[in-house]
Amino acid sequence: MKPIEDRQIKEDDQLYVLHSWSKQKDVDPKIIKKASGIFFWDDAGKKHYDMCSQLVYLNVGHNHPRLMEEFKHIGEVPLSSPGFATASKAELARKIIEVAPKNMAKVFFANAGADSNDHAVKIARMVTGRYKIFSRYRSYHGATFGAGNLSGENRRFTVEPGLPGFIKFETPYLYRESIHFDSEEAAAAFYVDRLNSQILYEGPDSIAAIFMETIPGSNGVLIPPKGYMEGVRELCTKYGILMICDEVMAGFGRTGKMFAVEHFDIKPDIMTFAKGVTCGYSPLGGVIVSQAIADYFDGHVLMTGLTYSGHTVSTQIGCATLDIYKDEHLVEHAAEMGDVLAERLEQLKARFVSVGDVRHIGLFAAVELVKDKQTKEPIIAYGMDYGKDTVGLMKKFVGLLLNQGFYTYSHESSVIIAPPLIITAEQINEAMDLFESALAMFEKEYLFSDQKLMTP
Ligand SMILES: Cc1ncc(COP(=O)(O)O)c(C=O)c1O
Hints:
The chain is an alpha/beta fold. It has helices at residues 6-16, 53-56, 65-71, 87-99, 113-128, 145-150, 184-202, 228-239, 291-299, 312-327, 330-351, 393-404, 425-447, and strands at residues 32-36, 39-42, 47-50, 104-110, 132-136, 166-169, 207-213, 242-246, 270-273, 285-290, 355-361, 364-372, 377-378, 406-407, 410-411, 414-417. It folds into 2 domains: 6-60 and 329-451, Aspartate Aminotransferase, domain 1 (Alpha-Beta Complex), CATH 3.90.1150.10; 70-327, Aspartate Aminotransferase, domain 2, CATH 3.40.640.10. The structure holds pyridoxal-5'-phosphate (PLP). The site of pyridoxal-5'-phosphate has 15 residues, from helix 5. InterPro entries: Aminotrans_3, Aminotrans_3_PPA_site, PyrdxlP-dep_Trfase, PyrdxlP-dep_Trfase_major, PyrdxlP-dep_Trfase_small.
C-alpha cells in the first residue's frame, strides 16, 4: 500500500467508514503513527500510555519484535480450509490445552470473541439437548446476534426482541447492592440461592448452559465474591447444566493467572477465548471444551463451522504469542505488577472524593466514579452511555485523561485500567500520576466548582 497523507486518511474515514457504537458525527478519530510497548504516538505527535491495551487485547504490547518477525514468515505456509490439518492449528490447540484447566481437551477455532460465544451456545445445546441459556446482567459477550442476546446491558437492545430461551440473572455487584452482607461468603450464598430459585422456576431440564464472563470486564471489573463461582459450579453439576466461562477479556494473563477461572476452585465445561490469544495481531477466537464434551463429538456430528476456523495466519501468530507469554513470564509479571497498580488504586480511593470504588485483579482494574461518596450517586445514570451522554461528565473525564496522555475508555461510571502485561512498575506509577492529575482537574472543574455538584 502506498503512503497516504493523514489528511486524506481522515477525509476518507469520515466519508466511508462507519464506526462502532457511536453517532458518526461525534467521531473524530486520531491516527496511530508509531507505537512501541505500552506507548503509541498520534498524528499530532502526542505520546500516549496505552492503559487499556487498545480494547484489552494488546497484552504483549505494541509492535512486539517477535510477532513482527513472525509476520515475515507468514507466506511460507499455503492457506488451507478447516478440513485440512496444519502445523500451526494443531500446535496452537495443543498449547492452549496445555495451559487450560486439566479437564479441558479440545479447541474449536473461531474468528473472534462474539462468534466464539455463539458457537459455545450451539455446542451446549447439541450436547445437552436442552435449549435455555442463562447469562447475566452487567455482562458483555459480543455484538453478533447470539452473543448480543447473551449480553446483559444496553448493547443488547438492538437484537431485541431477544431469542427465546435466553434468560438473565444478576451479577454480584457488592458496591451497589442494597443488602449489607457480613462477608463475601454470605453475599455469594445469597446470589447462588437466588440463582437456584431461578433455575427451579425455569425448569432445570430445559437449561443447557449458564454462561458467565468469569470476571465481567467492560461492565466494570466485577470480581465475584468468595465462594460464588464454586456455588454456581455446584448448581451446574447438580442439574446437569454446562458451565461456560467467557475468558475473552479476562483470559491469557490479564488477571495474573493464565485464565481467570484459576482464581476459583472450579472447572468449567466450556471456555471461550479471543483477544489475548493473538493479542490482536491477527483476529482469532475459540471454544475450549472438556474431555466429556470432546468425547461426545467423537460419535456425534459437530454441527457448526466457519470458513476460517483455524486460519493459518492467525494460528501461526497465536503460536508465537503463546511462546511470548511463556518465555517472558508475562502471567507472573502481570500478577506482580497488579500489586503495584492495586496500591496506587487503593490510594486513589482514599484520597479522592469522587472515587467511589476501585476493583482490581492482576492488571485488570476499574475505577468507579461517583458524585457523592455517601449516597454513591453515579457520575452518569445507568443506561446513559453510548451517545446519550456525549457531552456528559464521564466523557469529560476520559477527555482529561487523554489530554494527560493516559489512553483508556469508560463504561457507565467506571474507567477501565488494563495496560499491556509488559508494563513496568515505573511506568504504572508514571501513568497513575497522570490519572491523578486528570482526576484533580475533573473534581475542581466539573464536580466541586462553586462547592456544589454540577450535572451534565
Ligand atoms: C468478555 C467478552 N466477550 C466477548 C467479547 C466480544 O469479542 P469480539 O469483539 O472479539 O467479538 C468481548 C469484547 O470486548 C468481551 O469483552
